[in-house]
UniProtKB/TrEMBL annotation, chains A, B:
Organism: Nocardia halotolerans
Gene3D superfamilies (alphabetical): Winged helix-like DNA-binding domain superfamily/Winged helix DNA-binding domain (1.10.10.10)
Keyword field: DNA-binding, Transcription, Transcription regulation
Domain HTH arsR-type: 21-98
Name of the molecule in the record: ArsR/SmtB family transcription factor
Amino acid sequence: MPLGRWKSVEHPDIANVQIDEVLHALADPTRRRIVRMLIEEGDRPCGTFGLGIAPSTLSHHFKALRNAGLIRQFDSGRQRMNTTRLVELDAKFPGLVDSILSLAEPERPNG
Amino acid sequence: MPLGRWKSVEHPDIANVQIDEVLHALADPTRRRIVRMLIEEGDRPCGTFGLGIAPSTLSHHFKALRNAGLIRQFDSGRQRMNTTRLVELDAKFPGLVDSILSLAEPERPNG
């Protein structure tokens, strides 16, 4: 991991993340879907989520997820990558994200 | 309980409450405090919460809590009373509200 890898995007220290931001970030089905895709399929570039929504809207969702400590973004070559911060976040709010994700769309077939 | 007791205020059927509304409603410390007071101290009229916030703001908070199925309001004489709907809501989203409330302000002394 090259030094300064995260420098182009701001990320909060998990210690400063408030539960209000986490709840707000997860109170949206598109944002939950982004988090699920990262959990289930691993890190991926911004342009590959295939959600059929405008880049500006997607950018807004990524920002909400970053501010809530749910994802981390970093530049890799010419791509902006996304990864979850769930290990960090779960240490601060144990079980919260799992609980919300499992209750939110329980009947989805897979993925 | 007189028939038509709830008729002056609209309440969603719990079956129609979405998790997005619950998360949004609980993503605010004042709204969480209202819910806690109802859980810990029982039903109470709108004017007795003593939160030091403007009535119009408080009214907005009550509406968010009603829409999320978290509280029910009813008129009793000249007072508008508030009660929780946590039994109903917990049947739909098991453990969610408890989890959020216990993680949100874990270090508060009491009440």
